[in-house]
Amino acid sequence: MKAIGVDETSKDLQLIDLPVPEPGPGEVRIKVAAAAVNRADLHQRRGHYPPPPGASETLGLEVSGTVDAVGPDTTGPRPGDEVCALLAGGGYAEYAIAPATQCLPVPKGVSLVDAAGLPEVACTVYSNVVTEGGLQAGETLLLHGGGSGIGTHAIQLGKALGATVAVTVGSDFKAQRCRELGADIVINYREQDFAEVLDGRADVILDIMGAKYLPGNVRALAKQGRLVIIGLQGGAEGALNIGALLAKRGRISATNLRGRPLDGPHGKAAVVAGVRRDVWPLIEEGRIAPVISARLPLAEAEAAQGLLDSPESIGKVLLTV
């Protein structure tokens, strides 16, 4: 099969040949229609985010396509079913292996290709904003990186749950698109200080920046606010004003999705089941839709990854197979 490999020296992406993988117990093989590009793929490419033990070394954390084989003792999707799936790796290829419990049916009203842009963002947002952050109707949700795949999905989910949604963005184009998706407060971080704008008003903050935004996030938190850190684009080590956090009775948690176990109360299977129960109906009702900025052929993976840093790119970039 054709897949995307990373040159060990130059780190360039290239189309290579790999054996078609075989599904093991509890797994399915998917003939890939599309794979989504995520920032984690860029970190892995540069050697900063290795896959979990036993996972494919090939880039790609989510795909959509048609099940064409199932492993022994596998229940759930059957050959011929159209699915989208959360992966620990292996998505940039013509075939991918996924645990059956990490597969989701393609939602009604969403094309097979565009469904590739749903599993990672839906599971990330649901597990962190709803499960970890405990967002409730009437609360205020602050999202950093409002124009990202995670941000565009979280805006829609936050509004569907009855929250006031604030976002930070870096361009007027992204600001306008976030407003169109339902964001109530849009802050261009190049022109405004989000901590000053939201001083003490954010009940839940979903943060991709880490250290750089830590002081501002604590200032922005409301009483009993919850800061959930899922990325370190602004560094891994920063100063924390514990006194300010104590005064607000605030809570900080840091989580990731890729490294979670498959099973258990906080495992990926439980996250996927929660998404299917609580988020998929919202998608099928048209209250949440995948936001796709570009669809490129698999061979153009290099260009697709470059689009993630473009000021004109919003939402997800997909690789079609």
Supply database-style keywords.
321 residues, alpha/beta, 7-stranded mixed β-sheet, 6-stranded parallel β-sheet, 10 helices
Task: Give a short synopsis of this structure.
The chain is 26% helix and 27% strand. The chain has 10 helices and 15 strands. The chain has helices at 39-45, 119-132, 149-160, 172-181, 194-197, 214-220, 242-248, 268-278, 280-284, 301-307; strands at 2-6, 13-17, 27-37, 62-70, 82-86, 95-99, 103-105, 140-144, 164-169, 185-188, 202-207, 221-229, 251-254, 292-297, 316-320.
Structure characterization notes:
This protein is α/β, with parallel strands linked by helices and about 325 residues long. The protein is built from ten helices and 15 strands. Strands 3, 4, 5, 6, 7, 14 and 15 form a seven-stranded mixed β-sheet that branches. The chain has a six-stranded parallel β-sheet with strand order 10-9-8-11-12-13. The protein starts with a strand and ends with a strand. About 45% of the residues are buried. The model has no long low-confidence stretch (mean pLDDT about 95).
